[in-house]
Structures are given as structure tokens and as C-alpha cells.
Write a structure and sequence with these properties.
By secondary structure, the protein is α/β, with parallel strands linked by helices. Helix content is 38%, strand content 23%. It comes from Rhodococcus olei.
């Protein structure tokens, strides 16, 4: 899935969670100075910027299929090697990176298993592959849980996003094992976002970013109002903070 929304709208909707999530994934992957690293599905550059701060922009590569996201990423990590392209066909040579990471992307790869294999291919033996995706199967991503619960009050047949790759505990780890990665570990990372109020929560859904926003746009005006009202009833007044759990896995590339 390629995102068509402007980078600023993605940032208001989902990118704001990257501020607290990106350091956690980089820590899980053991990213430290002296390494060369790659961000697969970089979006507007939230994780790329964190990686550049750790290893220097000249040691960072990044890729995203959306040209507006790649352009925003170049602005946020000047000096990084940012390209347009897909996870399933990475444009770098074998064994080029010490660590290859992907944040909140595996669910939107056309072929997630092939994407993981490509991440492993461009990583040196002994290097680390790491990925994370929101917990949508057990409702750990609060923002999306509130939204889809509200949608189902209006449209009980709505499917939601829980069947997407990586959204269930252990799914990413299993894909890593199938790709031949060793020493696979898995767990959860918890990000958070502070909202100034309900409008700060609701407005980004109206931008039609990702499956949730696109589903909202496909509904009738009456249905959209019903979803908004149900979300409003589920959230506190005034300022509030929402947690978001992401499942993650790391694995090491073998020499074979």
C-alpha cells in the first residue's frame, strides 16, 4: 500500500507516534555509532532522523514508495541516502548494512515475507534485522482501537486492520524465522502521544490517511457523524494521552 496523503497530514495522524517509538526500535536493534543502517518504508522520516542522530546521516539509507514521503525524509535527514522504491526490491547490494529496520510498514508490504528476505539480503552476516507493527489484534494500539470500535457501532460488518501482517503477537518473529534469520527475539514496544483535546484526535482521521482514514471517507456523512460521536464518548474531556503498543522482532543474519 502506497500512502497518497501529504507528509504533514501523515505526521498529524500517525507520524506523531514515531517520536517515542523510533528510539525504542533503534534500541531493540542495537543501533550505535559506527554502524551503517537502513530504514525500509521510511515514510516522512521519523525513524530515519533517529538513526541519523545515532550514526550520522552519511551512514543512513532509507526508502519509501511514496515520493512525497521520500522528499520529506530527505529534508529531515539531510545527507542520508533516501530513495523511492519498495521493500520487496531494495536497490542496495548484498551485505551492505549493519542493521536494517522497518517501522510500522510490514502490514502494508505487498509481499511481507519477500520484504523481510530483502531486508536480510542487504544486511551483513551477524547484522540485525528489526521490524515493528501496531498491536491491532488485541487492541493495544489505543487510537485505532477507539476508532474501529466506533466504526463497528455504526457498521458492524467493518473488517478493520487486525488481519494485516505483523499486527498479532509473534507474527513478525515467525516471518523472520521463515526468512532464515537466527537468534530471533520478539516483544512489545509502547509509544504514546499527548492530545490537546478531542479535535486533535479526530481531525487527522478526516485526512483519509491509511486504512482507517480511507474507511472513514468511504462512509456516508451520517455514518461519519456516528463514528465521531462514538469516538467522542470513548475519550476523556480536555487533554489526554494515548498509549500504543507495537509488536516487534529482531533477528541476526547468518553467514550461510
Amino acid at each position: 500500500m502506497q500512502f497518497a496523503a501529504p507528509a504533514a497530514q501523515y505526521d498529524r495522524f500517525m507520524g506523531r507516534y514515531t517520536e517515542s517509538l523510533a528510539p525504542l526500535l533503534a534500541d531493540a536493534a542495537g543501533v550505535v555509532a559506527g554502524q551503517r543502517v537502513c530504514d525500509v518504508g521510511c515514510g516522512p522520516g521519523g525513524l530515519t532522523r533517529e538513526l541519523a542522530a545515532r550514526v550520522g546521516a552519511a551512514n543512513v539509507a532509507a526508502i519509501d514508495p511514496a515520493p512525497q514521503f521520500a522528499a520529506a525524509c530527505r529534508q529531515r535527514a539531510p545527507g542520508a541516502d533516501v530513495r523511492e522504491g519498495v521493500a520487496e526490491q531494495l536497490p542496495w547490494a548484498d551485505r551492505e548494512f549493519d542493521a536494517t529496520l522497518s517501522s510500522l510498514v510490514i502490514a502494508f508490504m505487498a509481499d511481507p515475507d519477500r520484504g523481510v528476505r530483502e531486508m536480510a539480503r542487504v544486511t551483513r552476516p551477524g547484522g540485525v534485522v528489526a521490524a515493528c507493527m501496531w498491536d491491532l489484534a488485541t487492541e493495544g494500539m489505543t487510537m485505532l482501537h477507539v476508532f474501529w470500535s466506533a466504526v463497528r457501532r455504526v457498521d458492524p460488518g467493518a473488517v478493520g486492520e487486525a488481519a494485516l501482517a505483523g499486527t498479532a503477537d509473534g507474527d513478525i518473529a515467525e516471518r523472520f524465522r521463515r526468512a532464515g534469520l537466527a537468534d530471533v527475539t520478539a516483544g512489545a514496544l509502547t509509544a504514546h502521544v499527548d492530545y490537546t483535546g478531542f479535535d486533535d484526535f479526530w481531525e487527522p482521521f478526516t485526512y483519509a490517511v491509511g486504512p482507517a482514514g480511507q474507511y472513514l471517507r468511504s462512509m456516508s456523512p451520517v455514518q461519519r457523524t456516528g463514528v465521531r460521536d462514538a469516538c467522542r464518548a470513548a475519550l476523556p474531556d480536555g487533554r489526554f494521552t494515548l498509549d500504543a503498543r507495537a509488536w516487534y522482532a529482531t533477528g541476526r543474519v547468518t553467514a550461510g
